[in-house]
Amino acid sequence: MTGLVYKSTGSWYTVKSTEGDFMECRIKGKFRMKGIKSTNPIAVGDVVDYDLDENSDVVTGTITNIHERKNYIVRKSVNLSHQMHIIASNLDYVFLLITINNPPTTTNFIDRFLVTAEAYGIETILVFNKIDTYDDAMLDEQLFMQYIYQQIGYKCLRVSSTEGKGIEELKNIMIGKVTMFSGHSGVGKSTLVNAMEPSLHLKTKTISEQSKQGQHTTTFAEMYDLSFGAQIIDTPGIKGFGIVDMEKEEISGYFPEFFKLKDQCKFNNCLHKDEPKCAVKDALEKDEISYSRYNSYLKILEGDDETYRTDIYNDDRIASDETRNKG
Q: Is residue 226 within a helix (H) or strand (E), and if so which, with residue range?
């Protein structure tokens, strides 16, 4: 039998068959022995083959095969730095939810996410959430960030779950697609899904005032069928976003505005750091490339993932402030 993985809890997988029936499945041990570097060999969104096991009192399944993925998105495993965790697979779009101060989403986090999505062939749409809560300063910051990413070519949406702003535009993009919501804990992923589909009643929590960070409400990634003909994968909040398995020479290729200028650099293998006659640095001097984007690029190039995960806000908030003040 063939089905689609709707939920993964680490040891059990909820699979929906082509007939629409849900089955709890386990995997054969060999999946863990194939040298796959991920901590989870099967992810939500995977198409799998499975056999029924009717020997026990409750009918369960055993997954025997994973179909080839068209794409997937990963992050570094928090505890195992050399392994990756597959967040979801076979996505049409991923929506990265961004909030300005409740909790703060840094440009460094956004750029790391976008680089990974570019590398794995997934189109990302930036969703600026909680716009009803912004004062004038926050609104300026949000519009400035939106301007940076729209100039590069990323689609940006502005939404408010509580006031219903931007919800219909978001739903129209999702119709007939498999999409994923991602972002820090507390940016309002579950609240936004509830606004689109109130019958789901996904759990939500308030922001911790002490840390200004969200509290995890979604424990495992899970796919939901929505009444307007869409499928959404709700994911646990991500604190940090370590880059996985990238050579230094290829990183700039996942910054679209850098990639466009690559042929104009004097050296073919230019890292856009210390080399002379670098088109990217020239564009930076002319304010044609955002300083915050270039700062993110240097941090990824230097491989400071561990520092990033322990303090994900401070340096990047300073960099964002500097960028705004220059503008």
A: strand 222-226
